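Case study: DUF4476 domain-containing protein.
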Amino acid sequence: MKTIFFFLILTASLSAFASGNRVGNGGDVVSCPEKTELLDFYESSLILHDFESTAGYRHIAEQVLKNLSRFSPTQSRNYVRRLSQFIDESDFKSEVTLADIKDSRHLFQPRDEACKVQQIAIRKKEASAASKRFLVDQDLWNKLSERGKAGLILHEIIYEHFYKLGEDDSIKARQLNAYLFSENAQKDKPAEYWKIIRQMKVPLYQ
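Here is what the predicted structure looks like once written out:
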C-alpha cells in the first residue's frame, strides 16, 4: 500500500502578503506516518522507473529530461534550463504549513485516516529580488525520496509551462510528469509520446 510522511501548506494569510507573493499554483504530496510520496506518482497506475540507488534528485531529473529529448528536443531543452534555475528560485521553509491551493482536483482521499493530501510547494504568480518564485516546505521535502524530489521539481516546471498554455489545474501536468518517470517512457517511441500529448489536448507540437 502506498503511504507517505507528514506535510504542510502555507496559511491563507499569504493573501496578506505583497502583490509579488500572489499565489499561482503548487504541488501536492500524500503524507502518511511512514512515507511521503508525490501526488503525481501516488495516483498514477504506471510503474515508475527505478533509477540508480545512489543517484541524487538533480541527476534523476537530468536523466528524465535526457529521455524526454528523444520525444521533444525543444521541450527538453526548455525544461533543462528551468531545472538549473529551480533551486535558486526556491525559498525552503521549515516548520510551516503551506496554504492549500485548490488546483489539484484529485478524485480521492487516502483510505487510511492517518494519510492526507497536503501542499508541498507553491509557485507565486510574480517574483522579485525580495521574494523568490517558489515556496517549498522544507520538512516535507526532506521526507521525499530522491526520485520524489526530482518529481516535484519537474512537476513545477511542467505545470508552469502548461499554466502558460491555459491549464488552470495540475491534472495534465501530473499525468505527464508520472509518465516521464515511468517505465513506459523509457521504452516508448516518439509517436507514442505525441499520441499522449494529443490525447491530453495540450497545444504542444513536434
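For the exam, be able to explain this: The first strand starts at residue 23 and ends at 31.
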